[in-house]
Amino acid sequence: MTRPVGAIGWFVLANVFVFLASANAARPPLVPAAVEKAHTWKYVLEDPGPRFAEPEFDDSTWKEGRAGFGTVGTPGAMVGTVWKTPAIWLRTTFEYDGRPFKTAAVRVHHDEDVTVFLNGQKIFEAAWYITDYELHDATPAIRKALRQGKNVVAVVCRQTAGGQYVDVGIALDPDDLITTRPPLPPLKPLFDYPLRDPSIALGPDGLYYLTGTTGHPTWWKTNEGIRVWKSPDLKAWTPLGLVWTIEQGTWQKKFHGENRALWAPEIHYLKGTFWLTFSM
To answer: Burial, 243: exposed, middle or buried (Cβ in 10 Å; 0-12, 13-18, 19+)?
Structure first.
């Protein structure tokens, strides 16, 4: 009688052990990145229009390719499909069983700007480029967009120069949820005036003073002189206009052929005085 009882007891404990191990196991990703598992996306290289991320969008004529998308030699890339054009649009689907989760993340490698949508809603956006895969917490956005049953993920990535690559995955309760770099905010112009080679100095009044090369579109061929702006917070800038013109100079007024311009001016506040330096 003892041995059967022991056998039954072991059977029960074994099942409890297996159940607990299964409960604590990491979920497979909803959409795997190339570093996790091979995955196929639909893609196009011409702009499909603003509604491409909506679940009902017809992508039946799109090509199919294996992730990731880019050029061989891009740092950290695992190229499954070569992409060499200025932009790419991607779509894929997955099924969600409705099980609750605590965290949700986007695994991404992008070079350059990338935007990720889930069922038509933006869940992730990042500018510029990175050199390896990163996992970013997107729990609020994914929780809002995720549906039980079929889901659609859409991605757009744009490229300007150098290497290029994009790959995206989505995971629930990932074990390695460590965001190494927060997404960059969208770039916003400080003011509507072309300016190159910026230089900023903090003045004695607590304001910031900005100058740089002006004279678009001729820039280094001809321009007027040195312009300055001021700001209390590096966000809102007030123009102070031309603070020095070439016509106020001496030797600077001479034309060399058709050229007479200064560039890369710098502004400094030293020993109670503002100093402006420049090249010609």
So the answer is: middle
